[in-house]
Amino acid sequence: MVTREQADALLRTYNPNEALVYHAYCVEETMRKFAQVYGHDPEYWSLVGLLHDIDWGMFPEEHCKKAPELLAHIDVDEAFIHAVCSHGWGICSEIQPEHFMEKVLYTIDELTGLVYATALMRPEKMQGMSVKSVKKKWASKGFAAGVNRDLISGGAEMLGIDLQHIIQLTIDAMTEASEKIGL
């Protein structure tokens, strides 16, 4: 299996923009948190999260289509590639999230963006952030307008997990990694 260092190097090769790297780190740490809470392999899940947007930085028009080719450069299995490609389901990919890990990735990818944007508006950034503060920003359609709230809600439905709980786990993960993600 690929090491975290190899995965990070590959991510940075195809995503030279630091904002994209921070996003990948947010998803990495949130996937790790969900794996820990639900009894799965945190290292594997976090690597899927880290590399989920491997093709976005240089190939945005081929997002989730170029990923298998780029991931072929490292030692990942078909399940890893399927998970990465399924996070764009209904947007840029026809690969539907089937497994729990894929549904988590699908749900939290956009959510981490909303949580990050919320943190940027707060003097204390991630420290002390609540689900209530995220939900307040959620309700403001003009705030982080690029975040697809319907996709997040649909992902929560697919998972059969309360959205409040998903938001809380995302906040927890990003708070624990606040230095790593630039907050």
Q: What profile does the largest beta sheet have?
A: none
For the terminal residues, how far apart are their CA atoms?
30 Å
Mean pLDDT: 96
**CATH top level assignment:** Mainly Alpha
CATH topology: Hypothetical protein af1432
Protein architecture, described:
The relative contact order is 0.15. This protein has 183 residues and is mostly helical. Helices cover 60% and strands 0% of the residues. The protein is built from nine helices and no strands. The mean pLDDT is 96. The protein has one domain (4-176): Hypothetical protein af1432 (Orthogonal Bundle).
In short:
With 183 residues, this protein is mainly α. The chain has one domain (4-176): Hypothetical protein af1432, CATH 1.10.3210.
Output the keywords.
183 residues, single chain, mainly alpha, Hypothetical protein af1432
Write the layout of secondary structure elements.
Blueprint: H1 4-14, H2 18-37, H3 42-51, H4 67-71, H5 78-86, H6 100-120, H7 131-139, H8 149-159, H9 163-176
Helix pairs in contact: 1-3, 2-3, 2-6, 2-9, 3-5, 5-6, 6-8, 6-9
